[in-house]
């Protein structure tokens, strides 16, 4: 039997699930921004990275201290191969929340793609330190170590 969820509630539940999978934490200020960030996560999943980034930019305009918005926009930029913009957003995410393992991970990937191997190694090491159970960061860290 299908439930008749309100579309916004459905998006919120979807955002919560994706956020937990991506390691995104919640702050009380973020609750007001949840519908826009939920839409951004959905758009990234659908491959509309530019529109996802626009939604995140709107959230950032209203709440410039919200690390999740920078992280999701950085991820959208990463998927769109806008590595410079992605690195900038992951930098801000980490400034706002130094324990954000996935921001270190994706910043490390972006740096590796731009040829900054030593910096990539440091970021991947930090991601692995913050989230030692992450298979992704462990595998990529091993790959980068093999280059040195």
What this model shows, in words?
The protein is an all-alpha fold and 148 residues long. The protein has 2 domains: 8-86, Serine Threonine Protein Phosphatase 5, Tetratricopeptide repeat (Alpha Horseshoe), CATH 1.25.40; 98-148, Tetratricopeptide repeat domain (Serine Threonine Protein Phosphatase 5, Tetratricopeptide repeat). 78% of the residues lie in helices and 0% in strands. It has 8 helices and no strands. The protein has helices spanning 7-22, 28-46, 49-62, 67-79, 83-96, 101-113, 117-130, 135-147. Helix 5 (83-96) packs antiparallel against helix 6 (101-113) and helix 6 runs antiparallel to helix 7. The longest helix is centred in the N-terminal third of the chain and has 19 residues, at 28-46. The radius of gyration is 16 Å and the shape is globular. Mean pLDDT is 81; it is low at 1-21 and 23-30.
Please describe the structure with a list of short key phrases separated by commas or semicolons.
148 residues; 2 domains; mainly alpha; Serine Threonine Protein Phosphatase 5, Tetratricopeptide repeat; 8 helices
Helix content: over 70%
Order of helices and strands: HHHHHHHH
Low-confidence stretches: 1-21, 23-30
Strand segment count: 0
- Give the distance, in angstroms, between the N- and C-terminal Cα atoms: 56 Å
Number of helices: 8
CATH topology of the largest domain, anyone?
Answer: Serine Threonine Protein Phosphatase 5, Tetratricopeptide repeat
Report the mean per-residue pLDDT as an integer.
81
Biggest beta sheet summary: none
Radius of gyration of CA atoms, rounded to a whole number: 16 Å
CATH hierarchy class name of the largest domain: Mainly Alpha
Helix- and strand-based class?
mainly alpha
CATH architecture of the largest domain: Alpha Horseshoe
- Overall body shape: globular
